[in-house]
Amino acid sequence: MLSGLAALARTFETLGAVVEPCVRDGEGFASGEVLACVHGPLAALLAGERTALNLAARLSGIATLTAAYVAEASGTGARIAATRKTTPGLRALEKQAVVHGGGIPHRFGLFDGALIKDNHVAAAGGVRSAVELVRGGVSHIHAIEVEVDTLAELDEALMAGVGLVLLDNMDAAEVREAVAHVAGRALVEVSGGVRLDRVRELAEAGADIISVGALTTGARWTDIALDLEA
Predict the structure, then answer these.
(1) pLDDT score recorded for residue 172
(2) Which of 69, 110, 129, 180 is deepest in the core (most CB within 10 A)?
(3) Residue 228 placed within a domain
């Protein structure tokens, strides 16, 4: 799955070269297939080669792995999401690569959604207190999500009126029980050590969103090369 073509093109164009794409971001490609043709001075091609290929290889690896996760959840209604575990300086590109693979980017930062995690709950003295503190400091349209480890914490979050809950490190049976307990009162996100071989069972357990840090932390780079032609 290709991602990073726009970054590759921008790299070469900054150096005075022209890029003609043969495959678009978000499209699959076969081994040996030509992804783009780059025309320009030799110095520009050689100067931009490593940076451009590093970006395309890294981002295509993320898109490809995301597509595999998305395929595992196909037909269940569950969506695959990224996390904020991204390479410093590359968050926007890596989140876009997830989208190219069919996933959703989740939050870009602390500004576009409040996720109350275990440390926040501990610092506030409980789930309800944490929710009230956050709610008092954000806009009425700002989404608030609470991470929970137990059904007791889930109850607290629901009683606090949050619209999203994150089930942390639960197995499929626990997720199924929690989803039944929520009974449609909130969106249910599942996260924590989600491997590819677990996606289907978590999706079938009723998760609305499955967030996977490994999309960006565990993706293998795609082998992409530049070959000069006279």
Answers:
(1) 96
(2) 69
(3) no
Residue 149, domain extent: 75-217
Q: Are residues 129 and 152 part of one domain?
A: yes
Burial 76-104 (b: 16+ CB within 10 A, else e): bebbbbbbbebeeebbebbbbbbbbbbbe
The residues annotated with a catalytic role in the active site are: 50, 85, 117, 147, 168
What CATH number does residue 59 fall under?
3.90.1170.20
Indicate whether 222 belongs to any domain: no
Task: Assign 108 to helix, strand or coil.
Answer: coil
DSSP class of 45: H
Per-residue pLDDT of 27-63, as tens digits, reads 999 999 999 999 999 999 999 999 999 999 999 999 9
Question: In 3D, which of 21, 6, 219, 204 has the Cα closest to residue 103?
Answer: 219
Is 202 in contact with 59 (CB distance < 8 Å)?
no
pTM of the model: 0.93
* Rounded distance between C-alpha atoms, residue 79 and residue 184, angstroms: 16
- Residue 202 structure tokens: 């978590």
In 3D space, the residue among 90, 62, 88, 162 whose CA is nearest the CA of residue 121 turns out to be 162
Split into its structural domains, the chain has a count of 2
CA dihedral sign, ordered 13, 222, 202, 167 = negative
